[in-house]
Specification:
With 220 residues, this protein is of the alpha+beta class. The protein contains four helices and six strands; from the N terminus they run ααββββαβαβ. The chain has a six-stranded mixed sheet, with helices on one face. α2 crosses α4. The N and C termini lie far apart (154 Å).
């Protein structure tokens, strides 16, 4: 009986050993699959994290650009507002800001060179180049340049005939408000007036006095 059990036991042992050997490769395959799945999951997680990092970086860049643009717009707005405020203040503080440059020029010249400051009216007449100094005298010569003639309502008010040099100076012509009528005076007489023009600098004068004269100006 004991001899019969030995072969049976050996047979069972062999069968169990073979079954164990058969399961080992399967377990190894399952382990490999688990590791592969974990690796894939790790790669997917890394990709997701990279994508999130890129999104966060892009958001940060856009936020910075928006902030810079907002700061630039605010700075530009402040500069514009400051300039407008300064311009407004300058306009308020300058009595002559409402008048043209020509009006200011005429008033300043009369204030400095006009014979009578207590005038009722100041007439400003533009005389173009080529016009005669004395239209009532055939022996007269013509103005070599454009001039302006400022005069009052009376002879006693005087007259200022001048051309502007555009640099704060003028050329004054010694032309009377009314010629004496002793014609012909002769071409040399008139040429001497042209040659003897006097170059003078124009003072700014007091704004209040200049404005008073502007108010009585009458332009042609």
């Amino acid at each position: 009986m004991r001899k019969q059990l030995v072969p049976i036991i050996l047979l069972l042992t062999t069968a169990l050993f073979l079954a164990g050997c058969a399961d080992a490769p399967k377990q190894n395959d399952d382990s490999d699959r688990v590791e592969e799945n974990q690796s894939t999951e790790n790669q997917d997680s890394t990709k997701v994290n990279d994508s999130l990092d890129k999104v966060d970086h892009k958001a940060e860049v856009e936020a910075k650009l928006d902030s810079d643009q907002s700061g630039s717009d605010t700075s530009s707005s402040n500069e514009t507002s400051s300039k407008e405020t300064n311009d407004t203040n300058n306009k308020v503080n300058t009595p002559l800001s409402d008048y043209s440059s020509k009006e200011i020029e005429f008033a300043r010249i009369w204030l400095q060179f006009g014979a009578n400051q207590d005038v009722d009216r100041i007439y400003a007449q533009h005389i173009p180049s080529g016009k005669p100094l004395n239209s009532n005298d055939e022996s007269t010569v013509n103005y070599p340049e454009d001039v302006v003639q400022l005069s009052g309502t009376r002879l006693v008010d005087g007259v200022v005939t001048y051309s502007s040099n555009g640099d704060g100076t003028i050329n004054i012509y010694n032309v009377p408000k009314r010629w004496d009528g002793h014609n012909p005076a002769g071409e040399e007489f008139y040429k001497k007036i042209i040659e003897d023009t006097e170059r003078r600098s124009v003072d700014l004068g007091e704004d209040e006095k200049v404005e008073q004269l502007i108010r009585i100006l009458e332009l042609d």
